[in-house]
Amino acid sequence: MHVTGVLKSRNFISTGFYLEQNYPNPFKKLTIIKFNLPYRTKVTLLVTNSYGQVVDKLISCVLDPGTYELKFFADGLPEGTYFCHLVADRLSDTREMELTK
Q1: Cβ atoms of residues 14 and 38 within 8 Å
Q2: Cis peptide upstream of residue 78 (ω within 30 degrees of 0)
Q3: 26 preceded by cis ω (within 30°)?
């Protein structure tokens, strides 16, 4: 499992906080995760399995407002249902991700 750098995909200030559904979903090895931040804040982005165990901490840092995207490689993870959790300030959002082989 690994992430290729966090990329700020747009240079404007976002109007809302949200985590988009990963794509593709279901995915085989690689999926793209996008999220928006309306203001500068500490961000934590986690992937957990269906038992709630953290399988990867993708981000834990302060980010400026904007839209971000990253590539998540699921190398070594078994097929199944996973959850992507975004926590920033007092806000959180979760999306279900389906890994197939």
Answers
A1: yes
A2: no
A3: yes
Instruction: Please tell me the CATH code under which domain 2-99 is placed.
Output: 2.60.40.1930
Candidates 69, 70, 74; CA nearest to 29 is 74
Give yes or no for residue 29 having a pLDDT over 80.
Answer: yes
pTM of the model: 0.86
| Region for residue 58 given its phi and psi (left: phi exceeds 0; alpha: psi -120 to 50; beta: otherwise) | alpha
**For the chain, which residues make up each domain, given as ranges?**
2-99
